[in-house]
Specification:
about 220 residues, mainly alpha, two-stranded antiparallel sheet, globular
Amino acid sequence: WWWHGEGVWCWSYADCQRILKADQIRKPAFGAFKACVPDLFPKGLLIFLSGGADTRWAAVRGLIHEMFLDNGTEAYAARVAQLPQKLGEDWKSPKLADLSDYDRVQKVVSKCIFFMMFGIWVTDEEASMLTGWRTNARYWILPRFVQRLLFNIGIGKVKDLRVKTIRLVERYNLQEVFVGMHDRLPAAYKTADVVELCDEIMFGIGFAGIGGGLAAGGG
């Protein structure tokens, strides 16, 4: 029906489970509408890529898991072990009431996620910037015609956030992480340059890691 937009609406748990377990045919869409690509979302964002064993989705996803999410590596285990100390140094004498301070909670969660990805504990100012992956969440779902009615203010904020996030990567000399990932991708799956791949990966970390983590925690 017309109110479904361009997506498939499933209200059966069995159908949802079957779809999630299968290789999915995807396109740049969000909330059953065409996504604003490439100005709001990167065109090669993982959630827009069709699944399957021999696909760009599988190649990029595999590298992300290997580089950032493999809890069997020494680096990952070391960061997990260091996290309580980092939190203790950053948030001295915490109280239960402090959890109502959403600004502080958002910053701490952003610091923790960036640390687990890269082993770097960012400053309060940098963490405040990273919280934009949560505070700008209202713009993800809006189709382009609504963005235009809002004079593209939301798109402008997200573009600025993407630029600042890439600059944070540069500030901490993390470019080689993405150079290595780009070099390991098959030729057919490489981006035009390393910056484009970095934008795709950092958007995913910001969108799903920081934004998703804060949303799950009610922050």
